[in-house]
Design a protein that fits this description.
Distance between the termini: 25 Å
Shape: globular
Helix content: 10-25%
Radius of gyration: 16 Å
Low-confidence stretches: none
Order of helices and strands: EEEHEHEEEEHEH
Strand content: 25-35%
Structural class: alpha/beta
Number of strands: 9
């Protein structure tokens, strides 16, 4: 059984697949508590792999499925991946990278939390390869993670919940990217257009 916070259909709001229709499977629970996290970890429904497949395929014809959290790598296993692949799903995962991933995931978004939890040794990612690296930019120096092979690098301005502070963080992020063009700006477009 898997602890599922919610399953919902919307557009991907961040990173390389921004604007793409996607079914999100949000897992409950995480191994960290980041100050900017927007997920409730105390609410979940226990679901089997078959339950999850039924919920996901109810949003046909969409077959782009994003496994997110919390930290989905704490629960996603080979059985769930196999069940979703059997239903012809293209699987993306958003992970902090501190746990190995089962084979069969099509797109890996690695969002390390070690820059925000420097005193927590376990926050260092163990993954050494991903399709995209996405860091929340809060104005502090950016760690490049040169030991991780990635195809795309994104900086996402931190949503502080305060409009004036958000404006300053965005300006700093844009300036940083102009000085470090290996990074690309990723906005949380779902928040900008007010969708889940």
């Amino acid at each position: 059984m898997y602890r599922i916070n919610e399953i919902f259909y919307t557009l991907q709001g961040e990173g390389r697949h921004t604007g793409r229709a996607a079914v999100f499977v949000r897992f409950s629970g995480c191994n960290f508590r980041c100050p900017f996290c927007d997920t409730r970890h105390d609410a979940y429904t226990e679901m089997s792999a078959a339950d999850i497949v039924r919920a996901v395929t109810a949003y046909a014809p969409c077959r782009f499925v994003v496994l997110t959290g919390g930290e989905p790598a704490l629960q996603v296993d080979a059985a769930l991946v196999a069940a979703l692949k059997q239903a012809n799903c293209y699987l993306a995962i958003e992970t902090n990278g501190t746990h190995p991933l089962p084979a069969g995931i099509d797109w890996v978004t690695l969002s390390p939390k070690s820059p925000y939890l420097p005193a927590v040794a376990a926050a260092q990612p163990v993954l050494r390869q991903a399709d995209e690296l996405k860091l929340v930019f809060d104005g502090r120096p950016v760690e490049d993670f040169p030991h991780i092979t990635v195809r795309h690098r994104y900086l996402q301005p931190c949503d502080t919940g305060q409009p004036e502070q958000n404006r300053r963080v965005l300006e700093q992020c844009v300036d940083y990217i102009k000085q470090h063009p290996q990074w690309t700006l990723s906005l949380q477009t779902h928040k900008l257009i007010n969708i889940p």
